[in-house]
Amino acid sequence: MTTISTHVLDAARGLPAAGVPVRLESRETDGGRLLGSDATDADGRVGSFDGAAGTGTYRLVFDTGTYFADAGRPCFFPEVVVTFTVTDANAHFHVPILLSPYSYTTYRGS
Asked: Which residues are listed for substrate binding in this entry (predicted)?
């Protein structure tokens, strides 16, 4: 069974980004289908999205505009979308982002 998790770190503050709304979507020709949604916990994590169904292309959509607005901070990227391909239906995929008001970075974690 495929599992997908994420971790958001606020690189500008040097702290986890708590309360970031995140959606997991499939990437289909009809524009995608919502598979799950959550918000990052106090440690900036969503431990698992249960909606992943195996191999295929997915996207994580981070509502960074809400996160920065709630903190009274400006941001340039109100939404971060990370699209990735799951190639092993029995693996765990961890997709973290490092976030600041004017940039973000992502990578495949472990």
From this structure: 7, 45, 107
Binding site for substrate: which residues?
7, 45, 107
3-state secondary structure the chain: CCEEEEEEEECCCCEECCCCEEEEEECCCCCCEEEEEEECCCCCEEEEECCCCCCEEEEEEECHHHHHHHCCCCCCCCCEEEEEEECCCCCEEECCEEEECCEEEECCEC
Q: Is the pLDDT of residue 29 over 70?
A: no
Which structural domain range is residue 21 located in? 3-103
Domain assignment present for 41: yes
- Structural domain contains residue 110: no
Q: Does the pLDDT of residue 88 top 70, yes or no?
A: yes
Return binding residues: 7, 45, 107
Per-residue model confidence (pLDDT) at position 13: 96
